[in-house]
Amino acid sequence: MAHHSYFSSLQEQLADGRLDRREFVRYSALLGVSATAAYAVAGNIVGEDFAPKAVAQDMPVGGSMRIAMRVYVVNDPHTFSWVIDSNIARQVCGYLSRTGTDNVTRPDLLSGWEASDDLLTWTLNVREGVNWHDGRAFTAEDIAWNLNHVLNPETGSSVLGLMKGYMMNDAGDALWDANAIEIIDDNTVRLNTRSPNIAIAEHLFHYPLLIVDPADDGFFGVGSNGTGAFKLTEHVVGEKATLENANNATWHGEGPYLDRIEFIDLGDDPSAAIGAVASKQVHAVDQGDIVQLDAYKAMPHVEVNPANTAQTGVARVQADNPPFDDPRVRKAMRLAVDTPSILEAAHRGLGAPAEHHHVAPIHPDYAELPFMSRDVEAAKALLAEAGHPDGIEAEISCKKDPAWELLAVQAMVEQWKEAGINVSINVLPSDQFWEVWDKVPFGFTSWTHRPLGFMVLGLAYRSGVPWNESHYANAEFDAKLTQAEGIVDVDARREIMAELEIIMQEDGPIIQPLWRAIYNVSDTRVMGYGMHPTSYIFGENLAIAS
After folding, report:
1. The pTM is what?
2. Do 404 and 291 touch, CB atoms closer than 8 A?
């Protein structure tokens, strides 16, 4: 297969030092070059083989693994609002692509993809030989149905936030062209896009874009059909979800090794997870609370698995709700906080202070701006200019758990007081918070990792998309975001990203205190349970020694 025409330019950028080797592999894979080939080419250029080495392991077969994780309603995968929901469904239903812990995106239910030179036409090749659990062949029609479903505004899927710029019309209420999603044959789907976008392959791994059986009309539950390694046999909200080995003869990956996976809901008290791990009632925890890190490290039978990520939390206002409808008020709230001290207070200094624009230093297209330091007097002046010389009163809603979120909110509330921004805190249990997270005028929302900087900007701040909880609408921002999405050259894209970051700092709807360093924990007998930067769990990789 001929490589994309831009592949040679990527090689030149790597050789010139304008692109590091891992970003070379990532962008090459996004353009349809196999990760194996990209690693090999990069190794020849830099004179070092740095491809991930497969570790030969004699994986034990059989047994059950119990993982402490919240168990929520999972009946509508295409509208999932959090990763933990997908960690149940992903064991049953697959994705078209998969982004690994090395941030390289590889085919999954696809065997590969090709992009046209102008990045407007993307050909998706179905992996042959994959069957649904009921024996029916997995085909291009299944893919097209799922893409049409997530892009239907009536579905309410956050996938729309990623794909709106290149798949939807100006109004955002329909595909931009009747052939935008085109079935070529049983094994081929073609995306005919409105504008170029380099990250389409990564969009296909956005966690609500699970490929569900069209016969289920988007519903998922006990007994649902899937292409994955497991089937869901039990699901009780707030208690437990059980998945059994599906014994799928056409399963396309390695494993599965376990007979059963049980997700156990221990509630919102992190001490319950500590006790369950200490007593070996569970084999793993999906994500450890930062305040419990030392306790886990002290357990001789526990392995702590860390990851540096673009996971974060933002105090976001609804930009159409007074007094937050004035950009001077929003900027004043940013200037009134000191992010390094909040990182220390809420996250023990683990991670990095944020800069109020939701693009992380680990993103390849991050543009470094002068750091937005605390300036209480400037904040007061902006409030006075906006007609609030005596300050403002507000209420922020946040979750009770994990502990770092409330700690971050409490630290910001204390700092806001000095600028005359008096904020009370409405603390909610997680299940209640997720019912209103996108409805409250002022709330603190955690956001997970995305591999590229512009991805979360599209999900959270593009006008009119389902996850735009802040009701932010800025035509200049939208246009520059669409422009950035179509630029392959990372240096050129970084120039546009700098403009987007400045818009967020000057006009945006968020106060962002920190970037998180995260970890999960597992019993030392557990195999295959690493920490994915987006907190994904892949049950087919797991095994447990007796």
Report:
1. 0.92
2. yes
